[in-house]
């Protein structure tokens, strides 16, 4: 019998997820039916979005059921197969769960990946995967910044933020990043090619707003928001007329009572637009975006970082790193 | 000497404007220079936007200076003229002040109006003026709702809101209005052709959200927000995927400490858009919009209401009516 270790939800988190919300369970690996294949997951993508899926309402996807393993994008290798398109040994990527074994179906999200085309298979969970595509479409489809415009990014040292800055700067925009702490800020300007970096730590909305004003003397034409809360309020106070505020994430708000955004009125007086952006809005352009990002990586035109933790027993601590901001790149869990 | 009575700002309001913030002053009527003309203002439009102009920052226009009369749209008659395009006796409309006499210039905002084309000159401050144009472009350019879609309007019994409902319903949309008190709600469905009305009084955001959910069983595709605060938060909890939230006004927030909007996260999970809308965005289409609204009024296809108070000494009380919601139609001050 093959043992399937699973990171299982047993209680819905109240605020920050904690040990008692999950259990590491072990059960027999699933058996596959006609047309199906068995994937041994090797890496799971630990994303802020997972927190939303643990809520009773689920947030834009079905909630993870109590007693089921936690949903995540994974990459792995086909170990059993009743489907010739998914032969044994094939690397695949899919929206699966944080568990050793998942069943794949031809009509599901799982698809083969070419690990020879990237420096490491994990690239499919970072720059060559959803993170890279999110940044690509965020810059090239949603915002389209040009020279002379200023783009402000919160969570700028994060997986998506670090790419947004580089992609927007390639288009000629001035990019200013917000991150937590001097080390991350140094990384923004030193490694990710941001024009300026702002440390949000120790600043309330007014102080952060003043710091943005100083770093963006011509105002802000685009806000790419990964954080929300105080960051969004401070950003709103600095938008130019006709600005676009893209809400990609609100990680500061996921584990706490709702933050009240005070400066929505700025949208009115600046005739500005704020829009929610999910990668799934550009599903039809995925191949094009994936090619573009792969080319940039192959050319060495963009840098990216991965933070890989080992062991399914570190699933929770990896998730918590996202919320405390202690990850140094795209958070990935190796399911050894 | 002609006496010019003026509603003059002497202190910046803290919260709700009060008597000590203004003074009725009297000075000689201004003299006109080359190409200029003197307008005797007969009616002033009392708009929520005036409150923003009293702030030190001004909000999308220069702030009203301390010691100057309060800015407002007015209609009046040319009484002296050094400009043949503006002969004596000509009715004109312009962005002037709450004062008996204003100086007009050919290159200013002031333009002749044809009072014979409307039931009353005051129509140029309501249905045939900025209010009517705001509703027209809001429906026909910003939202463009169609049959099968649901449009939610706050401040629905107000000057703009009462027209939004009628215009959207002409396009086949289902329109649901929020207003304060049973009388206004009865007016929404009885007079302004709303499909359903919701009384916001006595409801917190959760209760109002539940009432919206009941009145909008298919969710909300468009929110036309005039009120903000609890209304906006409750509306956000009911938006459909891809919804458009139009911020036209936030009257509930103008006189108080900033309200914190809790449900901005809904924009993300619903990939929705929220945009600020000012009439000035459609300046180039004004003639077309004005013709369309004039035709609808002439056909009796839309109804509208004006609430006219008499006397410049009632300027403040008229303004306060807007914030307490005790006006019964477009608030207009007759400057007798």
Automatic annotation (TrEMBL), chains A, B:
<dbReference type="InterPro" id="IPR045010">
    <property type="entry name" value="MDR_fam"/>
</dbReference>
<dbReference type="InterPro" id="IPR041694">
    <property type="entry name" value="ADH_N_2"/>
</dbReference>
<dbReference type="Pfam" id="PF16884">
    <property type="entry name" value="ADH_N_2"/>
</dbReference>
<dbReference type="InterPro" id="IPR011032">
    <property type="entry name" value="GroES-like_sf"/>
</dbReference>
<dbReference type="Pfam" id="PF00107">
    <property type="entry name" value="ADH_zinc_N"/>
</dbReference>
<dbReference type="InterPro" id="IPR036291">
    <property type="entry name" value="NAD(P)-bd_dom_sf"/>
</dbReference>
<dbReference type="GO" id="GO:0016628">
    <property type="term" value="F:oxidoreductase activity, acting on the CH-CH group of donors, NAD or NADP as acceptor"/>
</dbReference>
<feature type="domain" description="Alcohol dehydrogenase-like C-terminal">
    <location>
        <begin position="159"/>
        <end position="291"/>
    </location>
</feature>
<dbReference type="InterPro" id="IPR013149">
    <property type="entry name" value="ADH-like_C"/>
</dbReference>
<protein>
    <recommendedName>
        <fullName>NADP-dependent oxidoreductase</fullName>
    </recommendedName>
</protein>
<feature type="domain" description="Oxidoreductase N-terminal">
    <location>
        <begin position="5"/>
        <end position="109"/>
    </location>
</feature>
<keyword id="KW-0560">Oxidoreductase</keyword>
